Amino acid sequence: MSEIFEDKTENGKVRPWRERKIENVRYAEYLAILEFKRAHDVRGCGEVLRFRKIGEHLKLYQTWFCHKRLCPLCNWRRSMKNSSQLKQIIAEAVAREPKGRFLFLTLTVKNAHSAEELKVSLRALTKAFNKLTRYKKVTKNLLGYLRSTEITVNEQDGSYNQHLHVLLFVKSSYFKNSNNYLAQAEWAKLWQKALKVDYEPVVHVQAVKANKRKGTDSLQASAEETAKYEVKSADYMTADDERNLVVIKNLEYALAGTRQISYGGLLKQIKQDLKLEDVENGDLVHVGDEDYTKEQMEAAEEVVALVRWRSKHSL
């Protein structure tokens, strides 16, 4: 006897298992057409979900994830885990350096028009960022950072816009002295120097803070922006199958051997102190929203979902 159930968050929001799994099936179909060896494995991602029912809530207890870089299911779980870890790291950073301030920095570079160009550009981005963090004007105020890569696909010409989102944790003196403060134009010049390009790249920087009294939390919003998906599935799940195949093939090639997220300075040290695992290669079943002990989970009723998802899209 089968029954329809819903996996909900503590605030009642239904988790998008169905939507992400349907996208996963479609992604696996594309990989099969492109003759990727792991297409079958991707199709099996999240097929059988074992939950523990505690009160009115279901908690994922066991399943198998494929861990492919573009898998919509795995990307969703990684984003949840990255966000959970970052919340813990930020809280500890503020406890250790209560006068520290946060900046949200976006660093761009010219679009890439091929898989090879994108791969080279991603490597150049990482190398340039490492240089940027070693410049004296930056290091004298920098306490730590979180850097993440995002890639979007231009709808008009199919080019790839690769850029970095960076959450910087700086000393309070950054804002108190004109010799310490870096205006947006200065950040742009330093980024251009690090990239070694003959054009001025677009850079955006803003101070962020928690401001819950006014109903907004720009620090939390910036943290979530930094921890989100590297590539949104909407960029390779359009109505144009031919285009999607090209994009997936290019992204699979360009992203091989790269990392989405990297910590530095105090934030890296805190991550190590808290013994938080590497999200990119780690457990995607437990993503940091578990409020129950191991004993409670093992004693709870088990709910098994044997998934038979059918994609609305037929290639």
Tags for this model:
single chain, 315 residues, alpha+beta, five-stranded antiparallel sheet, three-stranded antiparallel sheet, 38% helix, 20% strand, globular
How would you describe this protein?
It is a single chain. This protein is α+β, with helices and mostly antiparallel strands and 315 residues long. Helices cover 38% and strands 20% of the residues. It contains ten helices and ten strands. The chain has helices at residues 17-33, 39-43, 72-96, 115-132, 136-139, 184-195, 218-227, 241-255, 265-273, 294-299; strands at residues 48-54, 57-62, 101-108, 142-153, 160-170, 203-208, 210-211, 216-217, 261-264, 301-306. The strands form three sheets. A five-stranded antiparallel beta sheet has the order 6-3-5-4-9, with helices on both faces. Strands 2-1-10 form a three-stranded antiparallel beta sheet. Helix 3 crosses helix 7 (218-227), helix 4 packs across helix 6 and helix 4 (115-132) packs across helix 8. It is globular. The mean pLDDT is 86.
> How far apart are the first and last residues' alpha carbons, in Å?
32 Å
Gyration radius, to the nearest Å? Answer: 21 Å
The assigned structural class equals alpha+beta
Categorize the overall geometry. globular
Estimate the helix proportion, in percent: 25-40%
Strand order of the largest sheet: 6-3-5-4-9
What is the tally of helical segments? 10
List unreliable stretches of 5+ residues.
none
